[in-house]
Amino acid sequence: HAATSASYDQVSILFSHVEGFHDFSMELDPQDLVNFLNQMFSQFDRICDDNQKVHHGDDGFFFSVDTIGDGYMACAGLPEDNPVHAHAIARCALSMVMLGRQGYFPHPKNPDHTLDIRIGIHSGSCVAGVIGQRKFAFDIWGDAVNTASRMESSGKAGYVQCSDVTHALICEDFECATDGAKLVKGKGWMNTYYVLRQYNPRKHYTV
């Protein structure tokens, strides 16, 4: 099997993380941990699927890419172009953190304690492809992917942090609060924002 790849000029990428997951995971037996992650990732998949169907039907504008531990990565704008990729990713990110705030992810051993989701998003270009010989895997690479990951790791629990690039694409339709310039590992100083809400949640961004 030869590796296949394609370049995408305009995509938006999301990374999520469960705040305090390392300590939390050490308290659980393996089956409880797997059940928790399965429930959470199933909810995230549903959010991505619902967002795609509302705006574009089944045209493949949204793609859930990978999970690593408690991390979830998704991308809007591939495999088909999507001019509103940043809006799509922002809507999904807000829905995901809201589930955490509303208590949808309780601690299996302590139901009164709910776990917050931290999300970072960024927009740019990437390369996507299928690699592997025995087990095929679809993945994405590029500076935009790395920057989205940094937006997650430098953000706050219960919030969606975005780069200034994504902010410029969504600021007319989403309320955002500046977090000023911060030193982001591997990126230097960056202006970042927290996405707070969509001004008109009923608005559909058609192409």
Largest sheet: 8 strands, mixed
Share of helix, binned = 25-40%
- CATH topology, anyone? Alpha-Beta Plaits
- The structural class is alpha+beta
Folded structure, characterized:
With 207 residues, the chain is of the alpha+beta class. The longest helix is centred in the N-terminal third of the chain and has 27 residues, at 30-56. Strand 4 (106-107) and strand 5 (110-114) form a beta hairpin. The strands form two sheets. Strands 1, 2, 3, 6, 7, 8, 9 and 10 form an eight-stranded mixed β-sheet that branches. Strands 4-5 form a two-stranded antiparallel ribbon. It is 33% helix and 39% strand. It has a single domain (4-198), classed as Nucleotide cyclase, GGDEF domain (Alpha-Beta Plaits). The radius of gyration is 17 Å and the shape is globular. The mean pLDDT is 83. Helix 2 crosses helix 3 (85-101). The chain has helices at 21-26, 30-56, 85-101, 143-153, 164-170; strands spanning 4-18, 62-68, 71-76, 106-107, 110-114, 117-131, 137-141, 160-163, 174-184, 188-198.
